[in-house]
Write a structure and sequence with these properties.
With 208 residues, the chain is mainly alpha-helical. It is built from 5 helices and 2 strands; from the N terminus they run ββααααα.
């Protein structure tokens, strides 16, 4: 069962999962309240409103159907709780002070250092940036294996993530390091989530 926080809508069922929308408590009939949490952009001061679903009826106390659903980004009070800790540690202070490009650069530098350390421990060779990413994750003879290389799917994942790691260095980190570039908060969020994804993929690699 789903709850739409925007009040009555024309559709009676979710177009994604097919379940009925819920506007009233199934136990006592009390209307489900409309509430929102906001993340405020530092530059524009405009809030981004996420629906915040109460887990229990305020009248009878019965749990709503979604009370046991795993927390998602839209249900989270903390943006940084959805970001890899290494990214948060490198970028948070810069981001929250409004230095968005610096925050992204710091996060990608942290990613580069992490990959460099793993690669150097395995090979004794010190590389950096795009060259490092292409050699470390190369699907031909990967030093850092991200998935099962005995399957086509695993090799595709290795190839794709190699391109993502290298592309993040070439297209995001390098321009900021070589020029004065400013980005807005929305773009910084995109880049931080990308860097977070790459950190998590690195964490999930098979033991070697």
């Amino acid at each position: 069962m789903l709850y739409s926080p925007n009040g009555p809508i024309k559709q009676s069922h979710c177009q994604t999962c097919g379940q009925s929308f819920l506007f009233n408590c199934e136990s006592c009939g009390t209307e489900v309240p409309n509430t929102f949490r906001s993340i405020v952009f530092f530059t524009s001061r405009k809030p981004v409103n996420f629906p915040s679903r109460p887990k229990h009826c305020t009248s009878c106390g019965e749990a709503y159907p979604w009370a046991s659903v795993t927390k998602t980004l839209n249900d989270s009070n903390d943006f940084w709780g959805n970001i890899h800790p290494s990214v948060a540690n490198a970028a948070r202070k810069r981001y929250e002070s409004g230095h968005f490009a610096d925050a992204v650069e710091a996060a990608l530098k942290a990613l580069n250092v992490t990959v460099k350390t793993i690669y150097q421990e395995k090979t004794g060779e010190e590389l950096d940036g795009v060259t490092l990413m292409r050699k470390a994750f190369s699907p031909n003879r990967p030093v850092i294996i991200l998935d099962n290389q005995d399957t086509q799917s695993g090799r595709d994942i290795q190839q794709g993530y190699m391109d993502l790691f290298a592309g993040a260095m070439a297209g995001i980190r390098n321009p900021k390091a070589h020029d004065i570039i400013e980005i807005d908060e929305g773009r910084a969020i995109h880049h931080l989530f990308l860097t977070s994804l790459l950190f998590y993929k690195l964490d999930e690699r098979p033991a070697s």
